[in-house]
Amino acid sequence: MIMNDKDLKAFIKEIRKEVALKKNPALEFSGRELDHELMEIIEAMVFEKADQRLLSPEEIKLVVDSVFNQMRRLDIIEPLVNDREVTEIMINGPDAIFIEKHGKVIKTDLRFESRERLEDIIQAIVGKVNRTVNEAEPVVDARLEDGSRVNIVLPPIALNGPLVTIRKFPDKPMTMADLIRYGSITEEAAEFLEKLVKAKYNIFICGGTGSGKTSFLNALSSLIPKEERIITIEDSAELQLSSIENLARLETRNANTEGKGEIKMKSLIKTSLRMRPERVIVGEVRGEEALDMLQAMNTGHDGSMSTGHSNSTRDMLSRLETMVLMAAPLPLEAIRQQIASALDIIIFLSRLRDHSRRTMEITEVLDYENGEIRLNPLFAFEYDRNETSGSVKGCLMRTGNKLVNQTKAELRGIAL
Fold first, then answer.
1. How would you write 306-326 as a 3-class SS string?
2. What's the count of helices (H) and strands (E) in the chain, helices before strands?
3. Strands, DSSP E only, in 198-246?
4. pLDDT (tens digit, 9 = 90+) per residue, 9-31?
5. CA-CA distance, 19 to 27, in Å (whole number)?
6. pLDDT tens, residue by residue, 148-158
7. d(CA 115, CA 118)
8. Are 200 and 223 a contacting pair, CB within 8 Å?
9. 332-342 and 289-297 helices cross at what angle (nearest 10)?
10. Rounded Cα gap, residues 392 and 283, in angstroms
11. pLDDT tens, 262-308?
């Protein structure tokens, strides 16, 4: 007998209620052994009642998984989190759940049983990373246990109910070999970047939302020599630098309900400089911390890296100027000199119309001259204008310009 959707949901609710009434320790603490005990309780109860309702094996499994996910995991979105083909989960209130799969955004048939249930899941997510979100502080960044990035916005800011956006990352950190295989970068450009990383050039990765900045930063970071001491600074920890042994990871903290205890990225960058780093990696700069990042790059911490949002390489420089002005009312000339002195290379990424993520430019930052920062494009993406299939064809090509600043490479005996 196949139960209709309404009856199935009612049965799931009934089982969950009866399991909760057992007051078993497994319901109040987390842990693999206790999770296993909880699963056994749920299975026993479902099998006991299944005969009365003539449930099929598929329905039994669905009920067991649903009850367990509601009590211990992320309810109806747990299967989406475990699906490796899903790269993003977008929840626009309890009744509208979208996913990104193979580069396309799809609306699912899933919905939470109530707004309160979605709010319970949100509190469970932020609670596990010691963060809070409520009407007074309705916006928060968090992460799941697998490292997936979570952004949450609550009413009254969110007008159509609680908003949750989950950006998932691969199980294994992205490598340059992966980027080459996906067509994001050419072998020639990847080899060139590997030399720049080992020669300790300061590299900044920029691009729009979903262009692959964090994945690219992971790939670049994997090229860092294993014996170096690295400090990473992020709003919510996402970087996967498993190849680095001497690694110190720092994460910002929001203020508590009394408005105290906030630790900003700016403070963490300053603190990191007292921890004897050989390189500092800042996950993403969005505001006044840009000044501290630039100063870190200018004070002997060569090989540092960071990312930022922009629509082009030149646009990133303008955005950095604005960020620095947020921190201190410095003359524009001084800011531009600071940027030109700190950054060596800017890599611009883009997500194209066919949903592919490509490296569009690799540009050397030269000096400040005649009121502007001079740039030297080394690689640029060239489109195949004859392509009419809808997919984007083209390749990252050398521009013919040579790297001007070769001092760092020469000091480390690396031939460019």
1. EEEECCCHHHHHHHHHHHHHH
2. 13, 15
3. 203-207, 230-234
4. 777 777 777 776 664 544 444 45
5. 9
6. 889 999 999 99
7. 5
8. no
9. 50
10. 29
11. 888 889 998 998 999 999 999 889 999 999 999 889 887 899 999 99
